[in-house]
Amino acid sequence: SASARIQSETIKRLLRERNATLVAHYYTDDAIQQLAEESGGCVADSLEMARFGARHSATTLVVAGVRFMGETAKILSPEKTVLMPTLEATCSLDDGCPADEFAAFCEAHPDRTVVVYANTSAAVKARADWVVTSSIAVEVIEHLQARGEKILWAPDKHLGRYIRERTGADMLLWDGACIVHEEFKAEGVLDLKKVYPDAALLVHPESPAAVIELADVVGSTSQMIKAARELDQQRLIVATDRGIFYKMQQAVPDKTLLEAPTAGNGATCKSCAHCPWMAMNDLNRLERALHEGSGEIHIEAALRQRALKPLERMLAFGR
Ligand code: 13P
Ligand code: SF4
Fold first, then answer.
1. CA 310/CA 176 separation, integer angstroms
2. Residue 133 CB–ligand 1 contact under 6 Å
3. Residues near ligand 2 (Cβ within 6 A)
4. Above 0.95 for ipTM, yes or no?
5. Does ligand 1 lie within 6 Å of residue 45's CB atom?
6. Per residue in 16-59, pLDDT tens?
7. DSSP H helical segments within the chain, as ranges?
8. 143-158, pLDDT tens digit by residue?
9. 98 burial class (0-12, 13-18, 19+ CB within 10 angstroms)?
């Protein structure tokens, strides 16, 4: 709408005035992603967001995503101001892995190398040997497995099980899940495949095993977009947050993109495949954060130092 366009222009001006850059995840609203594109920021997966923020010369990073993404940005760039449209945007994986319980789990298995998903608090990262995102998780586990290491993995059990099956590594899994991806249903996908037998299925590895088994491609959000480009199929069924359709459709304007079903009968629940916390990032909150400097991430120095090590390992590994 016209008012949204005016607001977007205001936000771009505020970004310039603050020497700030906007780092957005694919699951945020189209309007936020568009702003990130138009203002020279980025729209990316979790790993690329971390890289982009750490390397950028801006003095302020505005992270549109969920809390752990802002924390990661601050851990990697303590000298920068990191703002978020809201600090309330959590993640079911992060919430499902409290630092004290996680520390007890690690202490009970001291012989295992601790690998945590990026979707965790700074305190959980501080307890880890490695942090990984979905785009490099398999490679990192293969690397550790080749060194004969046994793994303690947290928090996403679906991603953990997928990696374990792919690599055959000895992995002990924490019992966490993403409430968005966990809703995808294999029966629904099979029903849709009956209607469109020519369609390829792209799946984010936070999805249940039965859905992953049907996939043509399993990968992070960026890897799914890359695959959409490279696959021969003209019709793609996509099992991840629907926010990804904005950039995926840009990448493949001539292909037909279908949402993977979140119900067994092939119907898609209209609000299911969208992360409620990603959805909290709206233009009003973004404007307020820039205007007032609100939603700032602070991380205590000692905690930051400990969380930095496994994060730096991740960035160095992926280079
Ligand atoms: P990636 O963008 O790294 O694939 O992560 C998905 C996710 O759930 C972020 O919340
Ligand atoms: Fe967490 Fe899932 Fe939301 Fe990503 S989509 S932030 S994993 S709840």
1. 20
2. yes
3. 27, 66, 91-93, 119, 178-180, 206, 241, 275, 277-278
4. yes
5. yes
6. 999 999 999 999 999 999 999 999 999 999 999 999 999 999 99
7. 2-17, 30-38, 46-55, 67-76, 92-95, 99-108, 122-126, 137-146, 157-167, 186-195, 209-212, 221-230, 245-251, 283-292, 301-318
8. 999 999 999 999 999 9
9. middle
